[in-house]
Amino acid sequence: MQQEWIDKGKQFLANTYTRFPLGIAKGEGCWLFDMNGRRYLDFLSGIAVCSLGHANKNVVEGLSKQAKKLMHVSNLFYTEAQIRAAQLLVENSFGDKVFFCNSGAEANEAAIKLARRYSWKNHGEGRSQIIAMENSFHGRTIATLSATGQPKFHVGFNPLVEDFTFVPFNDFGAVEKSISGRTCGVMLECIQSEGGVFVADKEYLKKLREITKERDILLILDEVQTGIGRTGKLFGYEHYAIEPDIMSLAKALGSGFPVGAILAKDRVMDAFEPGTHASTFGGNPLAAAAVIATLNTIMEDGVVKNCEKMSAYLLQGLLTLKKKYPFLKDVRGMGLLLGIEFTMEVNPIVQEFLAEGVILYASKGNVIRLLPPLIIEKEEIDIFLEIASRIFERLK
Ligand SMILES: Cc1ncc(COP(=O)(O)O)c(C=O)c1O
Q1: Which of 26, 132, 186, 218 is the most buried (most CB within 10 A)?
Q2: Residues lining ligand 1, judged by CB closer than 6 Å?
Q3: Quick one: pLDDT at residue 293?
Q4: H or E element that contains 328
Q5: Residue 308, beta-bridge partner list
Q6: Contact 233/305 with Cβ under 8 angstroms?
Q7: DSSP letters of 67-86?
Q8: 86-97 confidence digits (pLDDT tens)
Q9: 181: CA distance to ligand 1 center in Å?
Q10: What pTM value is reported for the model?
Q11: pLDDT score for 217
């Protein structure tokens, strides 16, 4: 049955993804089940989306209740669900106000527009440059692609949006040199996850915060992947004792229901006035119900603490493996966003894991990324480590 669906998928779906030869039928906690009923340990979480695992009771209940009451109404109206979702985000972050959209790319698109609009309003025309990082990833729309510092994603899509300047990640001097009278924003991820799991240095982000504040340049943190508990804190910036001017969120924000958001202080978000930015679906009651259920569960059920604890446990296991197998070049990351760098090509290793019943994925540069649900327990990490040792033993 599975193969039939795969064949049909090839016939009817645009060929934009290199898909696993698997059809997924259902999920439960940290486990996924394919169409033939085989169980897989999920170390991908829909690429950092299903942080509460699959079929989380609170999210399912929140969504079903809301669907029965009101699924969608235009943003020309207020809804209780959207306001509650925004209040939860504001009360637990640096932000004063929230703009809701539907994805990470859309959140970054809004962040880019807001930075330019803020600058235009406060400093006049001509301040449109955004300094972004080499090796970054911000999305696939034309503006977010233009902000993405990986030329391989640009091929065939020129001309891109103007005025993005790229500098090496974790190099404060390069940012300082590139800042000019035309700069309105500095945009980065606190962990370059798609870029191969590189963590921003503490001192680097602190200095970026200082220089951007001095010159009224907006610091835009893309927390699409790092936000909502993934790093062991609710937001990645909390590790750095700084606050950004704009933060973008998506992925885990709705536990799999498509929703994105940007947060900013009033003085920044006020640059968006009625008619300047909008989204038909952004933060509709159903999306907002997913946000409310997700945030409440993450905060009330100790999920972020669990992420921190399980991260330490998994890291310890990985470091033990690293000592034993010299082809494990590096283990890095934060929380449950970890990368294992190999000395060899990793796609065959990803396939080995799949054959052993573990779903995980490669990142740039011989790196395998580990993104298990944040509700994972020791027993499941032990299963993963045992399978990993078995595979590494064969690779010796
Ligand atoms: C850091 C970061 N920003 C933006 C995006 C784009 O998000 P989306 O695919 O929801 O548009 C991603 C997706 O992987 C991401 O990791």
Answers
A1: 186
A2: 47, 103-105, 108, 137-139, 189, 193-194, 222, 224-225, 250
A3: 98
A4: strand 328-334
A5: none
A6: no
A7: HHH-S---TTS--HHHHHHH
A8: 999 999 999 999
A9: 29
A10: 0.98
A11: 98
